[in-house]
Amino acid sequence: xxxxxxxxxxxxxxxxxxxxxxxxxxxxxxxxxxxxxxxxxxxxxxxxxxxxxxxxxxxxxxxxxxxxxxxxxxxxxxxxxxxxxxxxxxxxxxxxxxxxxxxxxxxxxxxxxxxxxxxxxxxxxxxxxxxxxxxxxxxxxxxxxxxxxxxxxxxxxxxxxxxxxxxxxxxxxxxxxxxxxxxxxxxxxxxxxxxxxxxxxxxxxxxxxxxxxxxxxxxxxxxxxxxxxxxxxxxxxxxxxxxxxxxxxxxxxxxxxxxxxxxxxxxxxxxxxxxxxxxxxxxxxxxxxxxxxxxxxxxxxxxxxxxxxxxxxxxxxxxxxxxxxxxxxxxxxxxxxxxxxxxxxxxxxxxxxxxxxxxxxxxxxxxxxxxxxxxxxxxxxxxxxxxxxxxxxxxxxxxxxxxxxxxxxxxxxxxxxxxxxxxxxxxxxxxxxxxxxxxxxxxxxxxxxxxxxxxxxxxxxxx
Amino acid sequence: xxxxxxxxxxxxxxxxxxxxxxxxxxxxxxxxxxxxxxxxxxxxxxxxxxxxxxxxxxxxxxxxxxxxxxxxxxxxxxxxxxxxxxxxxxxxxxxxxxxxxxxxxxxxxxxxxxxxxxxxxxxxxxxxxxxxxxxxxxxxxxxxxxxxxxxxxxxxxxxxxxxxxxxxxxxxxxxxxxxxxxxxxxxxxxxxxxxxxxxxxxxxxxxxxxxxxxxxxxxxxxxxxxxxxxxxxxxxxxxxxxxxxxxxxxxxxxxxxxxxxxxxxxxxxxxxxxxxxxxxxxxxxxxxxxxxxxxxxxxxxxxxxxxxxxxxxxxxxxxxxxxxxxxxxxxxxxxxxxxxxxxxxxxxxxxxxxxxxxxxxxxxxxxxxxxxxxxxxxxxxxxxxxxxxxxxxxxxxxxxxxxxxxxxxxxxxxxxxxxxxxxxxxxxxxxxxxxxxxxxxxxxxxxxxxxxxxxxxxxxxxx
Lengths: 463, 463
Description:
Number of helices of chain A: 15
Oligomer: homodimer
Structural class of chain A: alpha+beta
Low-confidence stretches of chain A: none
CATH superfamily of the largest domain in chain A: Zn peptidases
Largest interface: A-B, 99 and 99 residues
Keywords (chains A, B): Hydrolase, Metal-binding, Protease
CATH topology of the largest domain in chain A: Aminopeptidase
Number of strands of chain A: 18
Number of domains of chain A: 2
Distance between the termini of chain A: 10 Å
CATH class of the largest domain in chain A: Alpha Beta
Mean pLDDT of chain A: 93
Largest sheet of chain A: 9 strands, mixed
């Protein structure tokens, strides 16, 4: 008989205690994009290292040029796996849209029999990473050992472009290289159906600042004569898409492949429509490239998105000013073999070509990672598929993901290691938005799923 | 002999005291666009009323729905004039660009023999309005009377679109109607050459907010599928000008007249080039309609300007969000017979036509006033021209102005009263920008100019 059954019982019995631990972690304001919260990031790292030590890991907090990493190791006889998660969270503004304090996590019954965990990071990624930690804790408590040799890497800069990650992986490659990686930062197909992610879009972030006059100007004196940086920036951004929603930057689609017809067909079979995808967020009209299904748009097509813009007077009332500068945060989601640095360079050329001779432009890079495409039929994927199907009572589906998880590309390139992407988030978790939540069922059955996956991996996939 | 000579002597002798009074007024943070400063606006009004009472005016602070007005009257035998100025000032952000505290006014020697008064409102409009008050004070001190019957109206909402002004003028029309108005909110041609303004552009302000999804979205999940309000707004703004710098809103140029060739010629004779106008602010290329002289662009052509834009994440670092909304502050400078409300409606139609079916847009109006065109050869203008020429030792020039002064249109429409626009500001005064200043020579000779103008008006223009 499987040795996982008592572990699952133990996870059921200790759910309340596991929630208390998660709440303690969620209460730490580890916002990585804002330097003001650096001490909170460190606190989250230290909390995690201490928790891992309490269940027998050799765990410590490692310095980087930015926020620290947590590295932990535990001996075991099965294959060597490296589990990855991130303890940093997104900013919480606009704060006034939160129903509850984002850093006072709570359990809420949202409908009879359905509870959710509320708070920033509940789903992305603290709740997810703790599903794995809890699975290890229970296995250890029941059997006094782990079924595999387990290493853990927790990062604190995932939400700010992971600037320290590559140097860290390069420096500690020998220590961190395992047979494969387990990454818990993705989602389920729906509340009942588990999923394994085999495709991930890449990401390039850029901040562009257009400067015109050397000071703010009165629009009465200078309007109609002096260059207006908001007008220049609006022109640049508007020029970036054509009437069919395609990105117009020269070379942007280099390396983009058409998705095979059988894959498109399997996605169509999932039954998503523009209405079912956009309805829950108050929209109905697909805004991307025309003539493509909504799942193809978010899973297998590249995009240019505008994530922020600011210039001139934005306070109460009105100020008839021509501002000295205006800036925008622009990001690109990449697929297949698009090259992040070529895209960055092409974008900068595209912008520079639209700046008047007496104005200037500057750029700040914010991360860059290529897309990832895993094989649909690797043994590792098949093993996890079976374990997930057993736990959830529904066949696990192989999907792609719109968001990037740069670590997966880095594991591949720097450590020669494939990643198994299993997660329990849901599209309505409001990650990166006010009122983030994580289903209690995701947290609980997520723990059980990892226990099953670890056991199955130890058996080499045999039931 | 003229009775103005001893008044001029008195103004010379009391310059230091007049500066102390101006500094006291400049220290009051009367920013009208920000509700947080409402008590400071009231304090400025009360300070002015008290000062006017101290020189024999019947002066009081009058309530409005917004910031209060100051109304004052003084008997006199000559014509009845109504002097207008505004005690409110522009916001001071970005505060870090100020060399000195904007509300700690000071006198600075910027080159040998040239001093300037620094602080927010020094030029726009507290310094200017005090030139008139000081002229009255000196005349009264020397002669025990004023040469004209003088009424005064000081407004506190000029920088926020003057919402209370029209109702106030309508309600107090009988009390405020004079033979003509004197308005001191304009500039000189250059530091040595006085000017009278005979043309003023009008202004329409609009705030437009585009809303897409009902929450901020993760650009990984929804990028390429969900509408992005920054992209929609950028498209709208970019569409508003064609390749020749003309505004593309249908009907925008209705009521715009070509400036007569002899006027254009007189402006050309002033010798301004794109370089001489734009060089001081770090620019060189005219950004408005092609094929027109720079003075025509700012004095006699309408514009669409973008004064502020904000949407999405604008803090430190990066956030891969598709924001729920984005907004812009847009203003139009109007000339000749352009109708502000028709322009506003045409703009809104233009925007609405570019909003996708599942998104929405809302508008907030921020003031609206038509342009003003005075006659080049009215007796009032000729009288002031002679007085200014005498004071400054150079012929006063008749110019137009790019900025709007809505009061002038309101005086014409509501009180049937023409306005004489004389002011002593300079293009490099940095009004509406950090480090605003007013030349000490403007303040001093401005006082003397008003003393001469009042005396000349009392004599019916005879020397």
